[in-house]
Design a protein that fits this description.
It contains 3 helices and 25 strands. The chain is mainly β and 350 residues long. The strands form 5 sheets. Strands 3-2-5-9-10-1-4 form a 7-stranded mixed β-sheet, with no helix packed on it. A 7-stranded mixed β-sheet has the order 8-15-12-20-21-24-19, with no helix packed on it. Strand 9 and strand 10 form a beta hairpin. The longest helix is centred in the first third of the chain and has 19 residues. The N and C termini lie far apart (86 Å).
Length: 350
């Protein structure tokens, strides 16, 4: 009896000694050893907005329409091109096998920089962060149980509105070590962009104008920072109130275009006027002008230069008396159909 009691005491003492030496002696893969570490998040806004507005609208020869449009665009984009995050979603994935998510947190950040102390097991992780998704309206974070499938997915529909927030994302390998104070710095970069169309309507006699766009990405792969082009939605721009006669301004916030021309490009049309370089377009602006007699003129502007993340692109066009819009940029392909009717469109495959 005494021998049995002494044996139990010896076992208890041995276990206590092992525990006091650290969890690495209890669990060789450290998967159960949790530790505190600090992670600092900062939004990094890289945009050409100021330069683009000065180049296109704020020159010495600017018209009243240009000046009013620049002011309206600054107001419209102030919550888009900003390094301020409302919400942030944090995921920590295994780097082996199927990259399953091991830890997940969501915070209201309401700042351009914030720090969090996390308590998670010692492990090697691939960390991703996504900001400003909650109030975007069109984009949601989906399939994020695994790192390689996590995507910022845009609503699929024939026509959609514009993004309501500037989206920011980051990814960073993290090796969380036992018994070491660690600090990780994570920079989040913008994933969407914006366009604007300023229209000089003096002398045109148009009664109404609508501007749509197409040719942009539909999804953003969070893990490798690439875009998917699954569906070609029509993006309906917002008409801005510039309170200035003789002009209009339209704007949109959306995903980027393709960065290079696709290898397969098809161009089929019976339009009465068509630019030769239309087949090289990466994305498209479509203007629908209603004249005083009720007829509609459609103008397709094929843009041959890519629209990239964090970028603002401003186009200036002149509305003609037949309803067509003529761009100032000579590199833009133009297609015009007078007396356009819905259902008569001939698509350019982008």
């Amino acid at each position: 009896m005494k021998l049995f009691r002494h044996t139990l005491l010896a076992l208890a003492a041995t276990a206590a000694a092992l525990l006091s030496q650290g969890c690495s002696l209890v669990d060789e893969n450290l998967s159960d050893c949790e530790t505190d570490y600090m992670i600092n998040y900062e939004l990094r806004l890289i945009t050409n907005m100021t330069t683009e507005l000065k180049t296109q609208l704020e020159t010495e020869l600017s018209t009243d329409v240009d000046v009013a449009s620049a002011a309206a665009l600054k107001k419209y984009l102030k919550n888009i091109f900003t390094d301020f995050a409302h919400d942030v979603d944090l995921s920590f994935y295994d780097v082996a096998e199927d990259s399953v998510r091991l830890h997940h947190e969501a915070h209201i950040m309401d700042a351009n920089q914030s720090s969090y102390t996390l308590y998670i097991p010692v492990h090697k992780y691939m960390h991703t962060a996504v900001a400003n998704v909650v109030e975007n309206d069109l984009v949601t974070l989906q399939e994020d149980d695994h790192c390689h499938t996590a995507v910022l997915h845009q609503e699929i529909a024939d026509s959609i509105g514009t993004h309501k927030t500037g989206l920011f994302t980051a990814r960073l390998p993290m090796d969380v070590l036992e018994g070491i104070d660690q600090t990780f710095d994570v920079s989040l970069y913008m994933a969407n962009c914006a366009t604007a169309i300023v229209v000089d309507t003096l002398g045109s006699g148009i009664r109404d104008l609508k501007v749509h766009m197409t040719g942009f990405a539909t999804d953003f792969n969070v893990c490798d920072s690439t875009y998917r082009f699954k569906f070609s939605s029509i993006v309906k721009t917002d008409k801005l109130d510039i309170s200035t006669p003789g002009g209009m301004c339209f704007a949109s916030v959306n995903y980027p275009s393709r960065d290079t021309r696709p290898t397969r490009s098809i161009f089929e049309t019976t339009d009465p006027f068509i630019s030769e370089n239309a087949a090289n377009s990466l994305w498209q602006i479509r203007a629908y002008a209603t004249l005083v007699d009720g007829t509609v003129t459609e103008t397709k502007l094929g843009v041959t230069k890519p629209l990239r993340a964090g970028q603002l692109k401003v186009f200036k066009v002149k509305a003609l008396n037949n309803g067509a819009v003529q761009p100032e940029d000579p590199d833009i392909a133009v297609s015009v159909e007078i007396d356009w009717q819905a259902g008569q469109q001939h698509e350019i495959e982008l």
